[in-house]
Structures are given as C-alpha cells and as structure tokens.
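Quick note —
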Amino acid sequence: MLTCCPASETGPPRVAYAIGRRTGGAVARNRIRRRLRHVVMDHATRLLPDYQYLVGARADALRMSPSQLTETWLGLVERAHRDLPEGGQR
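Predicted structure written out below.
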C-alpha cells in the first residue's frame, strides 16, 4: 500500500511506514520495515520533493523476493504519482 500527499512544508520527500500487528510479531514487522526501507532508499530519486508518503505492507512482503518487492514498489509509486493532480506539481 502506498499513499502520497503534499507535505505541509517544502523539502525533500518524507516517508513513513505503517506495518500493522496483524502482519506478525515485532521481529516480523521490523524485518518488513527494513526491507521496505532498503527498496525505498534504492529508488528515492523517483519520489517527489514537497510530498510525503505512507508505505504499508502485509506479511506477504516477507515472502517476496527482492526483485518482486522492488517491482511492486515501483508500480505503487507510478500509480500514486499518476493519481496526483497535474502530474504531481503543486
């Protein structure tokens, strides 16, 4: 899951992670968060400045290969930006 909206302040893109308890215990949630953080950092240039992103995941993220996780992330970013008014420009 990815949600994107304009940030209240200008600056670099801001990313937060929401991994619910239904995905598993703290160890599983932290592992998912670390995997997502790695993918996001590798593709940070695709994020828009002055926007904030909320990334969520289910337990399936633990079973995905790194390439599957990356492909899913890139698809979500593309879809989120396409849904922004005027292509993400303020």
